[in-house]
Amino acid sequence: MSATLVIEDLITTFPGTVRPALAGISLEVRAGSCTAVLGPSGSGKSTLLRSVAGLEVPDAGRVVLGGTDLAPIRPEQRGISLVSQRPLLFPHLNVLDNVAFAARVRGVPRREARRDAADFLDVVQLGDLGNRRATELSGGQQQRVALARALAARPGLLLLDEPFSALDPGLRTSMHDLLAEVRRQLSPTLLLVTHDRDEAVAVAERVALLGNGCLLQHAAVQEIYTRPVSLEVNRLMGGLNEVPGTVRGGRHESELGSLALPEDAAGASGPGTLIFRQESIMVSGVDGPGIPAIVSAVKPQGARRILTVQVGGQLLHAEAPWALPVAQGTPVRLQIPRSALWVLPEEPTATTTGSTPNATGDAIDQLVTDHV
Amino acid sequence: MGNRKATLLVLPATVISFFVVVGGLLAALMQSLGLLPFAGPPTLNSSAYLTVAPDLPSAVALSFGIAAASTLIAVIFGFVTAMLVMRGRFGGRLIAMVSTWSIPFPHLVGAASMGLLLGDAGFLARIFGTDSWPELVGGPAWIAVIAAYSWKESAFVALVVTGVLLTRATAYDETAALLGAGRLRRLRHVLVPLSLPALGVSATIVFVYVFGSYEVAWLLGRPYPEPLPVMALRLFSSASLSSRPEAAALAVVTTIVALGAAGLAALALRRVPLWQ
Question: Which of A76, A84, A91 is the closest to B177 by Cβ?
Answer without folding.
Answer: A76
